[in-house]
TrEMBL record:
NCBIfam families: R_switched_Alx (TIGR03718). The lineage of its organism: Bacteria, Bacillati, Actinomycetota, Actinomycetes, Micrococcales. Keywords: Membrane, Transmembrane, Transmembrane helix. It is found in: Membrane. It is a multi-pass membrane protein. This is TerC family protein. Belongs to the TerC family. The chain crosses the membrane at residues 6-27, 39-59, 71-91, 103-123, 129-145, 191-211, 217-238, 258-275, 295-317. InterPro entries: Integral_membrane_TerC, Integral_membrane_TerC_rswitch.
Length: 342
């Protein structure tokens, strides 16, 4: 079944309104949300995605519905992993927690724009060149290997990106933030605040995330509508999730490994699909490779959800995670004691 036009248009209008309201709330009342507030917003966005998935099943049947759920879960998982990088960026530049929501919202908007461009380009390329699946598959397998072997030490050490370092040298920059402003006045001169560097860093990070995530979801569906809506739902509520899971991220020690398994699985799925629709003359004389199996969407969905569940449970039960929880609690108690002393 094809998606009704009114359903596609209505979906984008509704999602656009929700994102606009979310943006206006951040602009009008910048603050650090409580755990309760963040939890309610995350629950709302997850429920909204599940309602949308139900509508997909109702209007288009189980195939497209399953493709959306698989794509959304994959993109959401990658987004959660990306939160760890956001936490590092916020800490590296000492962004006041009151204005971190604004930074995250700008990051989400940049991510939506970049992913929209990649989705449009990807859909056109896939339509014209079936061999692109070989490239997507190889890229995901390489990304999975890199994800599995990356210790994250470079990120934690806080090595500054060359472009960011150059901006610091070229642009007049204040030492301190001035709320959420990009420019401020110091000694009568207009200068940029460190917030500009934060936005540039977030934008560059979003670009890298888009390069990784778009081939992954195109391995699950070739519908540009499903790809884009899955990405929107994965990004919605991300800033609230940042505050909700800030202390939990260090305990999800096996999440990177789970994502590497998922990316490798999708990479294999893409290569098999490329073999099934093969048109390259130097592979099987340009004929389809009939023995190459097509992995059903429900199998992909089961592998993705099963891998994430196993990784989360194993992480939370591991001794390293329990030690991390204890360290976080001791650090929180120390900050509380210092605050009371002051």
């Amino acid at each position: 079944m094809e998606l009704p036009i009114w359903f596609e248009v209505g979906s984008f209008v509704a999602l656009g309104i929700i994102l606009l309201i979310d943006l206006l709330l951040v602009v009008k009342r910048p603050h650090e949300p409580s755990m309760k507030e963040a939890g309610l917003w995350v629950a709302f966005y997850v429920a909204l995605a599940l309602v949308f998935a139900g509508a997909m099943f109702y209007f288009t049947g189980p195939e497209y519905g399953s493709q959306f759920v698989a794509g959304w879960v994959t993109e959401y998982s990658l987004s959660i992993d990306n939160l760890f990088v956001f936490i590092i960026i916020m800490a590296r530049f000492s962004v006041p927690r009151k204005y971190q929501q604004e930074v995250l919202m700008v990051g989400i908007i940049i991510a939506l724009v970049l992913r929209g461009i990649f989705i449009a380009l990807g859909a056109v390329v896939i339509e014209q060149f079936s061999w692109i699946f070989y490239i997507f598959g190889a890229f995901l397998l390489w990304t999975a290997w890199k994800q599995a072997t990356d210790s994250g030490e470079d990120e934690e050490e806080g090595a500054e990106n060359p472009l960011v370092a150059r901006l610091r040298r070229v642009l007049p920059m204040s030492e301190k933030f001035d709320g959420g402003k990009l420019r401020t006045t110091v000694n009568g001169k207009k200068v940029f605040t460190p917030m500009l560097i934060v936005f540039v860093t977030i934008g560059m990070t979003d670009l890298l995330f888009a390069v990784d995530s778009i081939p992954a979801i195109f391995g699950l569906t070739q519908s540009a509508f499903i790809v884009f809506t899955a990405n929107i739902f994965a990004l919605m509520g991300l800033r609230q999730l940042y505050f909700l899971l800030g202390g939990l991220m260090s305990r999800l020690i096996y999440l990177k490994h789970a994502l590497s398994v998922i990316l490798a699985f999708i990479g294999v799925k893409l290569v098999l699909h490329a073999m099934h629709v093969n048109e390259l003359p130097f592979i099987n004389n340009g004929h389809h490779i009939e023995w190459a199996p097509e992995i059903p969407t429900f199998v992909s969905l089961a592998v993705i959800i099963g891998t994430i569940v196993v990784a989360v449970v194993a992480s939370l039960l591991s001794p390293a995670a329990r030690q991390s929880k204890l360290d976080a609690r001791l650090e929180e108690d120390a900050k509380k004691s210092l605050s009371e002393a002051e």
